[in-house]
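Dear Dr. K.,

Following up on our conversation at the group meeting, I've run the structure prediction for Acetoacetyl-CoA reductase from Vibrio marisflavi CECT 7928. I'm pasting the input sequence below exactly as I used it, so you can double-check it against your construct before we proceed with anything downstream. Let me know if the numbering doesn't match what you have in your notebook.
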Amino acid sequence: MKKVALITGSKGGIGSAITSQLVNDGYRVIATYSTGNLQSAQDWFNEKEFTNEQVRLFELDVTNAEECADRLCTLVQEEGTVDVLVNNAGITRDGVFKKMTVQAWRDVIDTNLNSLFNVTQPLFGAMCEKGNGRIVNISSVNGLKGQFGQTNYSAAKAGMIGFSKALAFEGAKSGVTVNVVAPGYTGTPMVEKMKPEVLDAIKGQIPMKRLATPEEIASTVSFLVSDAGAYITGSTLSVNGGLHMH
Ligand code: CAA
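The predicted structure tokens came back this morning:
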């Protein structure tokens, strides 16, 4: 029996690389996509040449607690297990705080932070009962160091780290590890939509003078969920080219 990994926001830049990596590692991946985006999810699935055995597309609004509870309980019954959860879904709504709308604040907190409650709670109990599970939450360098124009995003990404440390305590005696990967600036559509001059200035501050590749983030996730990562819990692994050392 293949192990099952659920990855939220699978077809995004980092999510897609994590999906490919875990498929290569031998997992069956449940790849979530947001409401109404079936066509683009199918296009991504076809482009990657996944099989239905390797990847199951799964519609999930990570901001909707009731929907997550309902659909994820059904999923566990259908699949028999979810061994690995990667909370990867995330958005940006950048803007200076003085001009930030309440909508830009709420959208980011809902998608990036409240989603951790919504998606993790229905799966965590089953992992504890089974005595085995791996949860990896994708935060950001900007949750660790803060970033001009990202009060909403930095708050959510820092919140993910506190959540993960607290849940790591609760999962430890049941064999469920909870860790954070904190990517730096990574070559994805999210980063590519930044103003070129702002991105150039940030690149200049990175000691390695380049963006991360999505595959470099994915291989870190792969390590954490593997047997080799069994004794790591409550940790935050930075993958940021030296942009922030903590
Ligand atoms: N520190 C201090 N001051 C800064 C600054 C900084 N880092 N950046 C800009 N400012 C100043 C500017 O000099 C300017 O000052 P004046 O008004 O005196 O001229 C003022 O702040 C306004 O700056 P902008 O012209 O940039 O304002 P804007 O409204 O056009 O843009 C912004 C605001 C969209 C937030 C833009 O500053 C920006 O894109 N910042 C970077 C945000 C960022 O890093 N986002 C990451 C997205 S990718 C991601 O999030 C993935 C991940 O995890 C890493």
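Two things stood out to me. Residues 46 and 189 are 19 Å apart (CA to CA). Residues 102-130 form the longest helix (29 residues).

Best regards,
J.T.
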